[in-house]
Amino acid sequence: MTKKKQNPWGGRFSGGMDRLMERYNASISFDRRLWREDIEGSRAYAEALKRAGVLSGQECAALLKGLAEVAAEIEAGKFAWSEADEDIHMAVERRLTEIAGPVGGKLHTGRSRNDQVATDMRLWLRGAVAELRQELRTLQQALLEQARPRLKTLMPGFTHLQQAQPISAAHYLLSFFWMFERDRGRFSDLALRADELPLGSGALAGSTVGIDREWLARRLGFARVSRNSLDAVSDRDFGAEFISAAALAMLHLSRLAEDLIIYSSSGFRFVKLSDAYTTGSSLMPQKKNPDALELARGKTGRVIGNLTGLLATLKGLPSTYNKDLQEDKEPLFDTFDTLADSLRIIAGVVATLEFQPEAMEAFLDDFLLATDLADYLVRKGLPFRQAHETVGGLVLECEKRKCGLRELPLQVYRKRNALFAEDVKEALDFSASLAVRKATGGTAPAAVRKQIRQAEAALKKD
């Protein structure tokens, strides 16, 4: 069933839109989130129209006053939203015209919703990036605070989820600090590329009303104007980059979550999770489940899906604007919300984490020191490959005897290689193993102190 309704674009139509099509076509249910950016852009555009001689001073003042009233109504929750408005641009224009009268219809002179929405989204992205970078910084600060007192706290380092070499808890925590530092950098980088004003590009071919786009860019805080109107109205690279950066940040959160799920389990007990970020079982009274971590891990797939979906939407579009681009906002907004909440939750998990050093040290396997044994032989002149082979044989001997490397008699060592002497015991010490790895980026306390200073310096840059 159809109905006749007056749309801002309805002059060439003789019939009404199907009711289902109206709902299918409308984006007001989700793009209303852009109301601040839409009104900010419209204020600047009204001033630009005045500068171009399209609006009188009185008309511009009336529009600015009306836009302020619209903003106040929305802020106060008094704005009457209607699906009939189709999108945020038409909703604001409809209410502006009700307040200011026919002059409201002049605001769209030389402007298309194509360049309008592209501007709104870039303005929104500017704020979203700033907020996410701050949330990342908060999480990094929590990691740094947990790392500072744990330079000598021993824990097993894993590869392939098998015990590999001893590391410090501080070194482990800082490994995630640098992942999130890269994430902050990615958001900064994409913001630089997105710092470009499309407004004034019109529907696709540019403006005919003498808009000073360079002035408009300065007015809205953009670094530059877009250089091609066809590209400007269809470019959603910034959206894809934003979700891509967010997907990587979520991936890093997921990796941290996976580790902490394992380390807090009854098989490890390296850490205890706060009650504030865990839940229980409706059946099993003893359960304390790491739901915050599991949800962060699960929501990572959601954000990756948002990226895949947007890329699939963009991949086959002809130049220039197409309605498919309406599908960019929901994944963009959902990605922001998901990442922002996940960062806040995981920052809370990290800040309240209780390390259990006794449990971590008890978990240390002698075989973690196998590489140190090989290095011991290398220092005595044996080529590394031969040292590797020798120590591998000692590990096999331990497995046969069901003992650790520190329990093997010296004669067994010397039978494998005469270079072993009484001082081999010095190589079979977990703290000593930490201390010798003092090259930049290593797990030695001295190297980790340097790393902490570097981390502090990175956070001070903002």
UniProtKB/TrEMBL annotation:
Residues 11-305 form the Fumarate lyase N-terminal domain. It catalyses: 2-(N(omega)-L-arginino)succinate = fumarate + L-arginine. CDD domains: Argininosuccinate_lyase. It comes from the Bacteria. It holds the Pfam family ASL_C2. InterPro entries: Arg_succ_lyase_C, Argininosuccinate_lyase, Fumarase/histidase_N, Fumarate_lyase_CS, Fumarate_lyase_fam, Fumarate_lyase_N, L-Aspartase-like. Its main location: cytoplasm. This is Argininosuccinate lyase. It comes from Candidatus Glassbacteria bacterium RIFCSPLOWO2_12_FULL_58_11. The gene is argH.
